[in-house]
Each structure stands twice: as C-alpha cells, then as structure tokens.
Design a protein that fits this description.
Mean pLDDT: 91
CATH topology: Alpha-Beta Plaits
Pfam family, one: YCII
Organism: Phytohabitans suffuscus
Strand content: 35-45%
Distance between the termini: 14 Å
Protein name: Transcription initiation protein
CATH class: Alpha Beta
InterPro entries: Dimeric_a/b-barrel, YCII
Family: Belongs to the YciI family.
CATH architecture: 2-Layer Sandwich
Number of domains: 1
C-alpha cells in the first residue's frame, strides 16, 4: 500500500535531549528495504505559490494559502504492507521528534 508521508514542522518539538536519528541513515535503511520510493526536502514556504480559480479567473498569490505556524518541509513516498508498517517508518524519522509526520494513504480510485 502506498502512503504519502508529509514531513512537517511543529510548534512543540520533543524535549528529549538524546541524540537525534541520522536522516541519511534513515533514508539509506528505508531505501534498502524498498519502503521509501521517493522523497525530497521542499524549498522554504516563502517560495510557495498558491493558485485558485474563482468565477473563471485564475488567482495567483505568493506563499501558502493557509496561515499556520506548522508547514510541510518535505515528503516521502512509502510502500508499506499496512498502516502499522508505515507508522513504524514514520516514528523513526528524525522529524517525528522535532516536528510531526502525517501519513496519508493513496485513494483507491478503481
């Protein structure tokens, strides 16, 4: 089952002072296991462009549409047997401690 894993900032990071997991080791391990199909860090939110169509008019604005302190800073496309495996992958990502991870399964459009 495919999951989109959104890597997000959070206003309340973990207070645990133990060493963080290494992101390069996380990527290498999940790539080797075939669980991570793709992923990338995103440019800063200041580089975002929002596109909307209202009454047939295209409206383009700088920045994200939503006003929020949390933002998506990256993504990973996962292939996991089930949600439990996807949660296991997400919990070991370094940003699970300093940010938050959102897992969303791909919709079954068939």
């Amino acid at each position: 089952m495919k999951y989109m894993m959104f890597v997000c900032t959070d206003t309340e990071p973990d207070t645990d002072q133990s060493p963080e997991p290494d992101i390069e080791a996380w990527v290498a391990d999940n790539d080797a296991r075939g669980r991570r199909l793709d992923g990338h860090e995103l440019a800063p939110v200041s580089a975002a462009t929002t596109v909307r169509v209202r009454a047939g008019e295209v409206l383009v604005s700088d920045g994200p549409f939503a006003e929020t302190k949390e933002m998506i800073v990256g993504f990973d496309l996962l292939e996991c047997a089930d949600l439990a495996e996807a949660v296991e992958v997400a919990r070991t990502h370094p940003m699970a401690r300093n940010g938050r991870i959102e897992l969303r399964p791909f919709a079954d459009l068939g």
